[in-house]
Write a structure and sequence with these properties.
This protein is an alpha/beta fold and 638 residues long. It has 22 helices and 19 strands. It has an eight-stranded mixed beta sheet. Strands 2, 3, 10, 11, 12, 13 and 19 form a seven-stranded mixed beta sheet that branches.
C-alpha cells in the first residue's frame, strides 16, 4: 500500500499546483552450504501456507542461486528429462503466473506450459500465512498486500483481472466488506496510532497521526503529547500547520531546484530546525511504503509519498490541504483480500490448473479454498508449476540441422540437476540473477539488469491466544518509529474471499508486523547501496533474533494491558523478503534517462526465444506493472 506516483507524473502535477557495494553478511555465510542439497531429503509438508518459522526466502530456496551469483558455482552435468514445453516460465510470482495465463489465452488451452520456482510455494511476494487454532482459520499477510487504483490499469492488466473475476463490481464489494477501522485494508481515514518510548514506558498515542502531521484535526494537542521538548513541539506544530514558508529565501526557480536535489530530512533539519527524532516521526511511513528513509527521498518525493511539508513552502497558501492530506481523505480505491495479493495469485493458479481446487467458485471463496499442492505438477495436464526448483541456466540452442531453435533450461530440484527444453522462455525472476542465467547476453544488457536493487522487507505474523490486550490500544494500526518493526497492526479484518475474520477480542487474532532493514541514517552511498546493506542484514538475522525482537516489542507495547508473550503468543511466522519491491528511480541518485535508455528498458530487451517479464523490468513495484511486463513478454514471443 503506497501513495507513490512516478517522478515524471509528480513533476507534471506539481507544475499546476498540486553499482554499489558487494558485501558479505556479518556472521555465518548462508550460502556456504553445498549448492546441491543432499539426495533423499525429507519431503516438504504438503501445504506451505500453514508453515511457521522462517518463511519467504526460507532455507532451501536461495542457496543454489547464491552459489551461482556469488561464487559462479553450478552443476557440471544435468539429467535430460526428455520433457519439452511450448513455454517455460522462470518464476511463479505475479509476472510468471500472468505470463502463463496470457500465453494460454493466446495459444489455446492445450498449450504446454511449465513454471519453475525456487520457493516451496507460488505467488512470489504474494504469499499467505494461514493459522488454524480452536477450530478457526486466521489469515495473515505474507507479502504483497493491496490492489491499488485498478481503474488506472492498462487494458491488458484490467483484462486479466476481469478474467479471474476481479471487476469493478467486485472491487466495490471488497471495499464494502472492509471495516471502517482497517487502515491496512485501505480505509485511509481510519486511525493511525503512534507508539513512542517515554520515561514511563512505551505508549501508543491514539488518533490519526498521518493527518495530525498534515495539520488536520486537533494536531496541536496531539503533538503536545509527544515525548519531545516544548521548543521542539513548537517547531513541529508550526511546520505541520504551515504557519510559515521555510523556503522564503529562495526564488520560485530556486525552490524547484531545492526540492528536487535536497533530501527531505535535510530540509527538516536545516530549514525547519527539527531534530532527527522528529524527522523519524514524520517519515516512518516512508520507510515501509517505499523502502528508504527521508534521507534518500528528495523533498518532492517525500511529499508525493504522503509526508507533510507542501504547505510549509509557500506554494499552496490558498489551499487547505497538502497532497498527502488529500490522499488520506479522498484516495479510497485501495482494496485487499485478507491474505493480500496471495488470493490474486490463487485465482490465476486455479484458472491455469483447475485440479488444485476443483470446487472453488472464484472470488467469493478464494480466501478459504484449500489448494491441493500435489496437483501443481502433473504431466498429464497442460500447465504445471514445479516448486523448489532453482533455475541455473537458460540459453537458446540452434538445434540439429534442419530443426528449429529451442531453449534449454537447467535447474536444481531437491539435489537433482535437470534439463528441459521449450519453444519459448520467459524470465519472470529477479533482474539481478538473469545475467548469471544467461551469461552470453550483451554487456550493456547485463549492466541494465544489474542496475536496480530490489528493496528488502520483513513481514511477520504473530498468532495470539486472544485479542484482549491488543483491543485496549485504542487503534488497530500503529507506527513504531523507534522499534525493530515499524508497523504493527491487526491482521486484515475484511471478509473478502469468503473469509470470516475474528469478530471478538475473545477470539484468536493475528498481529501483522512489518520491518525494513534498510539503514535510516545519513549514510554515504546511494539508496541502492543501502538496499544491499539491508539485504545482507536480513540474511544475517536468524529466526531466533526476529522472534526475540517480536516478543520484546509486543511485550513493551501490550504488557500494560495484561499481555504475557510467554503464554499469549501461539505461533510466529517471519516472511523474509530480501528481494522485495522493484527499484524505482530516485532523484538523488538517478538521472532522467531519455525514452528507451533507462537501465530497466535496456535490460528487458528480447533475446530471441527468451523474454524478460517482472516488475523490475517496469521499474514499478505494483501488481499491474508485473502484469504489463508479462503481457509484453508474451507479445514478443508470439
Amino acid at each position: 500500500m503506497t501513495f507513490k506516483i512516478t517522478r515524471r507524473d509528480l513533476l507534471n502535477g506539481m507544475a499546476i499546483g498540486a553499482s554499489g557495494l558487494v558485501l558479505k553478511a556479518h556472521g555465518a555465510d548462508p550460502t556456504r552450504t553445498a549448492f546441491l542439497q543432499p539426495n533423499g531429503q525429507a519431503a516438504k509438508p504438503a501445504y506451505p501456507p500453514t508453515l511457521t518459522g522462517m518463511r519467504g526466502s526460507h532455507p532451501g530456496s536461495f542457496e543454489t542461486a547464491h552459489a551461482l551469483a556469488w561464487r559462479g558455482e553450478k552443476p557440471e552435468q544435468y539429467q535430460d528429462l526428455g520433457q519439452h514445453f511450448d513455454l517455460v516460465v522462470v518464476g511463479a510470482g505475479m509476472s510468471g503466473l500472468a505470463a502463463a495465463w496470457y500465453y494460454q489465452e493466446k495459444m489455446g488451452a492445450d498449450a504446454r506450459i511449465l513454471l519453475l520456482d525456487n520457493h516451496d510455494d507460488f505467488g512470489g511476494h504474494a504469499k499467505r500465512n494461514e493459522f488454524h487454532t480452536d477450530g478457526r482459520m486466521v489469515l495473515g499477510l505474507g507479502g504483497a498486500q493491496n490492489i491499488e487504483n485498478p481503474a488506472g490499469y492498462s487494458e491488458a492488466s484490467a483484462h486479466l483481472m476481469s478474467a479471474i473475476g476481479i471487476d469493478e463490481s467486485v472491487i466495490t464489494a471488497m471495499a464494502a466488506n472492509t471495516p471502517d477501522d482497517d487502515f491496512l485494508g485501505g480505509r485511509l481515514h481510519a486511525n493511525v496510532g503512534m507508539t513512542v518510548h517515554t520515561a514511563g514506558g512505551v505508549k501508543t498515542l491514539g488518533g490519526h497521526w498521518l493527518k495530525f502531521f498534515h495539520g488536520r484535526g486537533d494536531y496541536k494537542a496531539a503533538i503536545r503529547t509527544l515525548p519531545l521538548e516544548t521548543e521542539e513541539q513548537d517547531r513541529l506544530i508550526a511546520f505541520c500547520g504551515g504557519e510559515r514558508d521555510y523556503l522564503d529565501d529562495l526564488s520560485l526557480t530556486e525552490k524547484y531546484a531545492y526540492v528536487n536535489t535536497t533530501s527531505y530530512n535535510r530540509f527538516l533539519i536545516d530549514k525547519v530546525g527539527l531534530t532527527e527524532q522528529s524527522a523519524q516521526l514524520l517519515t516512518v511511513h516512508l520507510r515501509i511504503l517505499n523502502g528508504p528513509s527521508g534521507w534518500n527521498h528528495t523533498v518532492l518525493e517525500a511529499i508525493s509519498g504522503g509526508a507533510p511539508g507542501l504547505r510549509a513552502m509557500g506554494w499552496i497558501s490558498n489551499l487547505a490541504d497538502s497532497v498527502g492530506a488529500f490522499y488520506l481523505d479522498h484516495f479510497t480505491e485501495i482494496v485487499m483480500f485478507p491474505d493480500g495479493n496471495a488470493s490474486v495469485a490463487r485465482l490465476i493458479v486455479q484458472k491455469l490448473i483447475p485440479a488444485v481446487a476443483p470446487n472453488m467458485r472464484g472470488v467469493e471463496d478464494v480466501a478459504i479454498a484449500h489448494f491441493d499442492y500435489s496437483k501443481l505438477d502433473q504431466l498429464d495436464q497442460p500447465v504445471n508449476i514445479r516448486l523448489s526448483s532453482t533455475v541455473v541456466g537458460v540459453r537458446e540452442s540452434a538445434g540439429a540441422a534442419g530443426e528449429q531453435s529451442h531453449v534449454e533450461v537447467e535447474y536444481v530440484q531437491h539435489g537433482e540437476a535437470c534439463r528441459i527444453t521449450a519453444d519459448h522462455c520467459v524470465l519472470a525472476c529477479y533482474n539481478g540473477i538473469i545475467p548469471h542465467l544467461c551469461p552470453e547476453m550483451p554487456k550493456a544488457q547485463k549492466e541494465g539488469l544489474s542496475y536496480g536493487v530490489k528493496i528488502p522487507f520483513v513481514y511477520a505474523n504473530v498468532l495470539l491466544r486472544n485479542g484482549h490486550a491488543f483491543s485496549k490500544l485504542g487503534v488497530t494500526f500503529t507506527q513504531c518509529p523507534s522499534d525493530p518493526f515499524q508497523w504493527v497492526s491487526a491482521a486484515p479484518t475484511m471478509s473478502n474471499g469468503g473469509y470470516e475474520p475474528p469478530r471478538s477480542s475473545d477470539h484468536p487474532i493475528a498481529i501483522f508486523m512489518m520491518n525494513t532493514p534498510v539503514p535510516a541514517t545519513e549514510t554515504p552511498g546511494t539508496a541502492r547501496d543501502l538496499f544491499r546493506l539491508g539485504r545482507h542484514k536480513l540474511y544475517a538475522t536468524t529466526f531466533e533474533q526476529y522472534e526475540q525482537d517480536i516478543r520484546d516489542q509486543l511485550q513493551a507495547m501490550l504488557g500494560q494491558h495484561g499481555f504475557n508473550h510467554e503464554t499469549d503468543i501461539q505461533a510466529i511466522t517471519v516472511n523474509r523478503i530480501p528481494h522485495g519491491y522493484a527499484y524505482w528511480y530516485m532523484a538523488l541518485d538517478d538521472p532522467e534517462w531519455d525514452e528507451g535508455q533507462a537501465p530497466h528498458e535496456i535490460g528487458r530487451a528480447q533475446l530471441g526465444r527468451i523474454s524478460i517479464a517482472n516488475s523490475d523490468s517496469e521499474a514499478k513495484p505494483y501488481i499491474d506493472g508485473a502484469f504489463d511486463a508479462a503481457f509484453r513478454a508474451i507479445s514478443e514471443q508470439t
